[in-house]
Design brief:
By secondary structure, this protein is α/β, with parallel strands linked by helices. It folds into 3 domains: 79 residues, Roll (Archaeosine Trna-guanine Transglycosylase, Chain: A, domain 4), CATH 2.30.130; 125 residues, Ribose 5-phosphate Isomerase B, Chain: A; 229 residues. The strands form 6 sheets. It has a 7-stranded parallel β-sheet, with helices on both faces. A 4-stranded antiparallel β-sheet has the order 1-2-5-8, with no helix packed on it. Strands 13-12-14-15 form a 4-stranded parallel β-sheet, sandwiched between helices. Helix 1 crosses helix 4 and helix 2 crosses helix 10.
Length: 493
């Protein structure tokens, strides 16, 4: 078993792949290191002397600067490293684009929609346009489970507190995000549920939707009917009859759109699970598929690795504007851009935001960046897409679903139970988490710490994704965990 890994030849730290006791002597290439203290799994050890103020290098990039002299063999973490990030960064486009060699696409058993999009689930969704009708939507779901039969695989709603008492960009973001969820291919039928007096009027919502199929999308304004449960039940029955016509059939994996997210990260995230997802992304894109990467604040310090892979200067400029826009979002609220990672991240071995970001962007693999899209926008370009959204797990997973992701791959070193509206695959970074939380974790990448290769693990993940796309339920689906969270940045009236 490998005890330490030096990720890049220029790194002056290595990562403990297992707990290392004080006094343990370990060879890394031509260098031998003796641990000056106990080093926990996922944490860093200096493999050479690092001077005060010198850059601490991991992944071949600086993850901060030494606060004091760090002697070879010492534990390297928040007590002796500080971030090097600032609010101002100058960017220049230096293209580094390597197209992926195409691979013939396998198939999955999914659903083809009438407009030519694929789906991996055949469900009915109730979308509340305002928080006031959340309970109505939840009761409609409970009372109409008899409609889940045949090829109709589920009836769900996604409560939220917004849709009224919002202004400006907040109001527009809520409207746009909810309309995008209505358009999601996994929803064979959708009931849009309104109250009738909210800011987000039915007329506004229909204008946001643009065009829709009257057989697929129904509208109910609760204040306009005597009994919303009777009226809602009748509309849901019509939607179920429409959804029942769809049957699973063989579809090329080139039709898949997969979201990629990490949360509850640890020191192994950027070494095991995230690179596995990155290799998976490359494999899917080589087959003509599409992936989407978000969590913009967790690109800070590593954004150059993605920006220079943008296929055109136009796409690059969109990436710069996205990064700078999020930095302005922080500073406009009098917050520094580097107030990250979380306490759990630090406990798991992540020291600075640069450390976290360099591990986070591993999920993007090596493919060219084909497009950069805004919050609430839907993906239109095949390949690797960057999506504007925060790092918050629920907000970003919701945004990826709204963008059109059929499922979300979610890597975690600490563990988390939540699920997005789209099937959410939890991928553990370490064996201990996988063995402890089998009711949360779907797929284990922790074997890489024991010698499994990233490429083979990614191949296994591709096969697993095809199984999920073909109807196998994730742990979040089995547990009934589905929720949304909408990005908010404004006044509540």
């Amino acid at each position: 078993m490998t005890q330490l890994i030096q990720i890049h030849a220029e790194d002056n730290v290595a990562v403990a792949m297992c707990p290392i006791a004080k006094g343990t002597e370990i060879a890394i290439g031509e260098v031998t290191v003796t641990a000056c203290e106990d080093i926990k799994q996922g944490h860093k050890i200096a493999i050479k002397n690092i001077a005060q103020g010198e850059a601490v290098i991991k992944y071949g990039f600086p993850i901060g600067h030494a606060k004091t002299v760090i002697e070879k063999g010492s534990w390297v973490h928040v007590h002796n490293v500080k971030t090097g990030l600032s609010e101002e960064t100058a960017y220049s486009y230096e293209p580094n684009i390597t197209p992926l060699a195409p691979i013939a696409a396998e198939t999955f058993n999914g659903y083809m929609r009438k407009e030519g999009r694929a789906a991996i689930r055949n469900e009915i969704w109730i979308i509340p346009t305002v928080g006031c009708v959340n309970s109505v939507a939840e009761k409609l779901v409970r009372d109409n489970q008899n409609l889940v039969a045949g090829s109709v695989e589920g009836l769900y709603t996604f409560p939220h507190p917004f849709g009224c008492s919002q202004m400006g960009d907040d109001h527009a973001q809520t409207r746009k995000l909810l309309a995008a969820l209505v358009n999601h291919p996994n929803a064979a039928g959708v009931l849009v549920l309104s109250l009738g007096c909210e800011n987000l009027t039915p007329e506004q919502f229909k204008a946001e939707l643009g065009t829709w199929d009257d057989n697929r999308v129904k509208f109910l304004v609760c204040q306009d009917v005597e009994d919303e449960f009777e009226a809602g039940g009748a509309l849901l029955k019509q939607l179920a009859e429409y959804a029942a016509q769809f049957k699973r059939e063989a579809i090329p994996v080139s039709k898949l759109v997969i979201g990629m997210k990490c949360g509850g990260s640890d020191g192994l995230s950027g070494i095991t699970a995230n690179p596995t997802v990155g290799a998976f992304s490359d494999k899917l894109i080589a087959r003509g598929g599409t992936t989407v990467l978000t969590e913009v604040p967790e690109m800070f310090g590593a954004e150059g690795m993605l920006m220079n892979r943008c296929v055109t200067k136009e796409v690059y400029d969109k990436a710069v504007n996205m990064i700078d826009g999020f930095k302005h979002y922080f500073t406009s609220h009098n917050q520094v851009v580097y107030e990250n990672p979380s306490p759990g991240n630090k406990e798991g071995g992540i020291t600075t935001l640069e450390d976290k970001s360099l591990g986070c962007v591993q999920k993007g693999g090596k493919a060219p960046v084909s497009d950069v899209i805004g919050y609430g926008d839907q993906i239109t370009t095949q390949g690797l897409n960057m999506l504007s959204g925060p790092g918050n797990d629920l907000v970003s997973a919701t945004a990826m679903t709204a963008a059109g992701a059929h499922m979300v791959l979610f890597t975690t070193g600490r563990g988390t139970p939540f699920g997005a509206p789209a099937p959410t695959v939890k991928i553990s970074t370490n064996n201990a988490l996988y063995n402890k939380k089998k009711n949360w974790i779907d797929f284990n990448a922790g074997g890489i710490a024991d010698g499994d290769t990233i490429d083979q693990t990614a191949e296994n993940l591709l096969k697993f994704v095809i199984e999920i796309a073909s109807g196998k339920q994730t742990k979040t689906e089995q547990n009934g965990y589905r929720e949304i969270s909408i990005f908010k940045d404004g006044v509540v009236l």
